[in-house]
Specification:
With about 325 residues, the protein is mainly alpha-helical. The chain is about 70% helix and about 0% strand.
Length: about 325
């Protein structure tokens, strides 16, 4: 969905002039945060890459390192995220999710559940180049069971193309028999069908499933599976229906007050806002408005503060 992003390339762009502006904003006593956030949210990702290169050429220093030494907290995390290419940003989020103590399953679910096959191929390639080992090895070393199996299938990124009319009915039947009609669940069937068919094909399967079962496939998955596998299968189903609607829901729950009082999931908020700002954030905003009794803009406004909030609102690109 080209052109459904909120961030556009700036016309009359001059990478050297921008690099100088950023250098001045950090030089001397105190940092001019307003200039930094306004400039970086008004340039496309490709332009930001040129600014980074120009900064190094002019000053012999790394723009990201300089920003990191001047900024702090979630604002720093957000600004630095804007300076990675989209593939590299996904790669780093996934690496952070599997390294260290405990795996951040939500990140794996959100990224691998919603990216296209082409995007996953690019991620796999860049991950290997950056870290020397494969993403699949890191993921399998860190997860287990049917959850791991489904992640591995998604990492193969070999979904069939188009709709195979001949097997829509039998796929729906197979899913119905693997779940609702069976004592216990045949997770393999869910993994094979949901992990290998195209989104268009799956949407037709879900329609047939509804006729067979009398309710949506999401209900069956919620009843028949649990834990991280359930979350991953739901992410895949929701993304097959509509990636913007799935990510709108992720954004809502990242900010919605939880009974545990955990506060905002800034990691999820930053990751979705940055990674979708040039792809489909306008569609995500529209879905958000449709699904929840408020706009994405208003929810960010009420849920964040300071320069972090200002930057997110500029990425959001307006209220609905």
């Amino acid at each position: 969905m080209a052109g459904r992003g909120t961030i556009k390339a700036q016309s009359g762009f001059n990478a050297k002039a921008d690099a100088e502006t950023l250098y001045k904003a950090m030089k001397g006593f105190g940092t001019d945060e307003a200039t930094i956030l306004q400039l970086l949210t008004a340039r496309s990702n490709a332009q930001r890459q040129q600014i980074k290169a120009a900064y190094k050429t002019l000053h012999g220093k790394d723009l990201v390192s300089d920003l990191q030494s001047e900024l702090t907290g979630t604002f720093e995390t957000l600004i630095v995220a804007l300076l990675d290419t989209s593939t590299m940003y996904d790669v780093k989020c996934l690496k952070n999710a599997v390294q260290g103590a405990g795996t951040c399953e939500n990140v794996l679910i959100r990224i691998l559940g919603s990216r296209t096959c082409h995007e996953i191929h690019e991620i796999n390639k860049a991950y290997k180049e950056e870290y020397g080992n494969s993403l699949e090895d890191d993921v399998t070393g860190d997860t287990g069971g049917a959850f791991r199996q489904m992640l591995v299938v998604l990492l193969q990124a070999s979904r069939e193309r188009g709709v195979q009319e001949a097997i829509v009915q039998s796929d729906a039947q197979a899913l119905f028999e693997a779940g609702e009609k069976k004592f216990g669940t045949d997770e393999e069937k869910f993994i094979t069908i949901l992990g290998n068919r195209s989104a268009e094909h799956l949407r037709k399967v879900f329609t047939e499933y509804m006729k067979l079962a009398g309710f949506q496939i999401e209900e069956s998955i919620s009843r028949e599976t649990s834990g991280t596998l359930k979350e991953l299968l739901l992410a895949v189903v929701k993304s097959a229906r509509s990636v913007p609607a799935y990510l709108a829901e992720c954004l809502y729950y990242a900010m919605k007050p939880s009974p545990q009082g955990t506060g905002t999931d800034d990691k999820a908020l930053i990751e979705i806002m940055v990674s979708r700002s040039e792809i489909d954030l306008l569609d995500i905003r529209a879905e958000f408005r449709k699904m929840f009794a408020t706009s994405l803009y208003k929810m960010i406004q009420g849920d964040t503060s300071g320069d972090y909030r200002k930057t997110l609102l500029l990425l959001c690109g307006g209220d609905d």
